[in-house]
Amino acid sequence: GEVTIKRLQRRADQIRLLPRNPAYEPIIVTPDQDFAIEGVFCGLVRRE
């Protein structure tokens, strides 16, 4: 699958994965679903 950067938002009964790219929809994860976080984004360095 495709890898994108998302912000994790915890709610009482669900986890929401909010994409940084507005072209993508949020992903809602409920307690009955299995999911895994493949990595953690720490920062970005750009050279001009």
Structure in a nutshell:
About 0% of the residues lie in helices and about 25% in strands. The chain has about 50 residues and is mainly β. It has one domain.
Provide a descriptive summary of the structure in words.
It holds the Pfam family Peptidase_S24. InterPro entries: LexA-like (IPR039418), LexA/Signal_pep-like_sf (IPR036286), LexA_repressor (IPR050077), Peptidase_S24_S26A/B/C (IPR015927). With 48 residues, the chain is mainly beta. The chain has one domain. Helix content is 0%, strand content 27%. It has no helices and 3 strands. Strands 1-2-3 form a 3-stranded antiparallel beta sheet, with no helix packed on it. A hairpin with a 4-residue loop joins strand 1 (6-10) and strand 2 (15-19). The chain is elongated and about 45 Å long.
